[in-house]
Amino acid sequence: MTHTERTLAALLAEAKALPAGRTKCERLDEVIRLADAAGLDAFAFDTRLGALGDYTEAGQTQRELLALSRCLATLDRTPELVTPWQHRRLLWSLVYAPMNLVRFPTVARQQIEQVFADAERHFRGSGYQMHAIYQLRMYVALHLGDHEAALTWHDHFVVAKPDQMSSCSACVPSYLIECYEETGQFARAVELTEKVKHLTCHGQPYWLLSHALLPYVRTGDLDGAREAQRRAYPGMTDANWLHGIGLHLVYFALAGNEVRGLDLVERHLPWLDSSPSPFQTMEFASGAVMVLRALAQAGHGGTVVRDGRRGGEPLTTVAALCDELSTTANDLAGQFDARNGNDHFRRRLAARSVPTADAPAR
To answer: What is the distance between the alpha carbons of residues 94 and 199, in angstroms, rounded to a whole number?
Structure first.
């Protein structure tokens, strides 16, 4: 059967209406296959471009990489099929893809580097600046555990000229604050946070304030940390914020407020069922372990904890959950370090296991 654009549009609408996940991605793949078979190249391109967000949301990194590659091939081979709006959207997806891909240890560093190479080639060919690319290079280097490279990209980023492809004025400083947090430049992180904490967008100031929690604690500004936590937490409304919740758990462990930390562990433990990435799972788990270990060491290992995850027992204990999440975090840290070629995340977890005033927990 040869499909028309009209019949495929109906199939696409049905696929788009499905909840996020593998089944939705498979239905989108089928629409794309049928469009290719019918020779509807423009429709196939637009569907692939629109499916990128669905692949990202479902954690389907190989589908995402393939769709990006096919979209770029269409742009290179038949640019007349691509509208200016689609062109810009594709470049935006291309440069921000590594931020998602690096969170999956199954995605090789060479694959991430290839996406960056493609992004830089197309950015330069389209007359865009390198501001967004340097920003994401810095971010990815941090997540690969290469702080030296991250600081080099930081230096390029802060002098580059922003343009239409850059993040908004609230998100740009958030990336910088994360860099200063991860590289131990705590005073610098707090100084920048104080200047920009009034800025807002769909993800701010929640992210920038969450990344500022550790710097506030490390510089002794506990009042600043408390204010940041109170302002940031209400914006974390679904599993896409698991990493942020992990940062808040680290803060509560360092601040000695394990009771409040345990409340967050219980409340957000079910989010692990829909974690967007292994990185998010690892960050939540390692922050939770800091809280749970402190409680166990204080003699509360037998305290009952509600476990709202699907398939799990409804109740567990502080000690049992600490052991489980410690195993999860360490296993994932090993996978990331194997991909990255270093021991960054294992050392990071070891630092988090000693939440003292001098421990370089991040």
So the answer is: 26
- Helix, coil or strand: residue 94: helix
pTM: 0.93
Q: Tokens at residue 284, please?
A: 């939540």
Query: What's the mean pLDDT in 282-303?
Result: 97
Decide if 231 contacts 209 (C-beta within 8 A).
yes
Contact 101, 61 (CB under 8 A): yes
Tell me phi and psi for residue 117, to 5 degrees. Answer: -60, -45
Neighbour tally for 104: CB within 10 Å: 20
Give the start-to-end residue ranges of the domains of the chain. Answer: 1-82, 183-235, 241-362
pLDDT of residue 359: 39
- 143 Cβ partners below 8 Å, 6+ apart? 102, 103, 279
Residue 305's DSSP bridge partners are: 316
Provide the 8-state DSSP code for 157. Answer: H
Find the mean pLDDT for residues 213-232. 97
Give start and end residues of each alpha helix (H) in the chain.
Answer: 5-16, 22-37, 41-57, 61-77, 84-101, 109-125, 131-143, 147-159, 171-182, 186-196, 206-211, 213-218, 222-232, 242-255, 258-268, 278-295, 318-340, 344-352
Would the CA dihedral through 32, 38, 39, 43 be positive or negative? negative
Q: Which two tokens stand for residue 178?
A: 């994360």
